[in-house]
Amino acid sequence: MRIVIAEDDFILREGLALLLRAEALDVVATAGDADEFLAAIDAHEPDVAIVDVRMPPTNTDEGIVAAVEARRRQPGLAVLVLSAYVEQAFATELLAQGSSHLGYLLKERVGRVQEFLEALHRVANGGTAIDPDVVAQLFARTRPNTALERLSPRERDVLALMAEGLGNAAIAERLFVTDGAVHKHIRSIFAKLDLPPTDRADRRVTAVLRHLEDAQRRA
């Protein structure tokens, strides 16, 4: 796995590089701003880009803009976005482009090395990895009496784990239920949200995110 890291904090950037190299992963370049990052994408054609949301010169959305541009230049590039806290607008903007090969994690998750590495590999393999705290805050910010209110507590648990990018087996393991029970909850969720049922993980997550984005617009 060939990786480019874009992070303006030198200590975090080098710490990430050391961590990944210790796991026998190939960090081909690091960058401190968006221009350096895009130059590295063109030069090295990596499999995965790890990108900070806020980068110089304005420290607003340079990282998100650069990530979108990198995916345009290199279709299929896996992108794992890091943020110091939940950037709701940036999260929904990026995820609206499609959930395949995409992750959005809070920087504190990097300290939980195993979780971080699992998310990185999931994104590299074409899946989705959304920080549980991001999912929780997106749910919390939806207004009452939306379609989400029709879901049972267990269905909300399943939906949150779906939005993180977990498949049926992983959800069953996390909730200590059977695969069959998870499948039943998912069918019920899609029925209540008026979304077409499917077992394809990417499409499930995309549907969940679109629903959350719609709820955000109405809030």
UniProtKB/TrEMBL annotation:
GO BP terms: phosphorelay signal transduction system; regulation of DNA-templated transcription
Domain Response regulatory stretches: 2-122
InterPro entries: CheY-like_superfamily, NreC/VraR/RcsB-like_REC, Sig_transdc_resp-reg_C-effctor, Sig_transdc_resp-reg_receiver, Tscrpt_reg_LuxR_C, WalR-like
Entry-linked CDD domains: LuxR_C_like, REC_NarL-like
Pfam family, one: Response_reg
Keyword Phosphoprotein carried by entry: yes
Phosphoprotein keyword on record: yes
Signal peptide segment: none
The HTH luxR-type domain, residue ranges: 144-215
MF-aspect GO terms: DNA binding
SMART domains the record matches: HTH_LUXR, REC
Annotated keywords: DNA-binding, Phosphoprotein, Transcription, Transcription regulation
Superkingdom in the source lineage: Bacteria
Cross-referenced Gene3D superfamilies: 3.40.50.2300
4-aspartylphosphate sites (modified residues): 52
PANTHER family assigned to the protein according to its UniProt record, in alphabetical order: TRANSCRIPTIONAL REGULATORY PROTEIN NARL-RELATED, TWO-COMPONENT RESPONSE REGULATOR
Protein name: DNA-binding NarL/FixJ family response regulator
Organism: Plantactinospora soyae
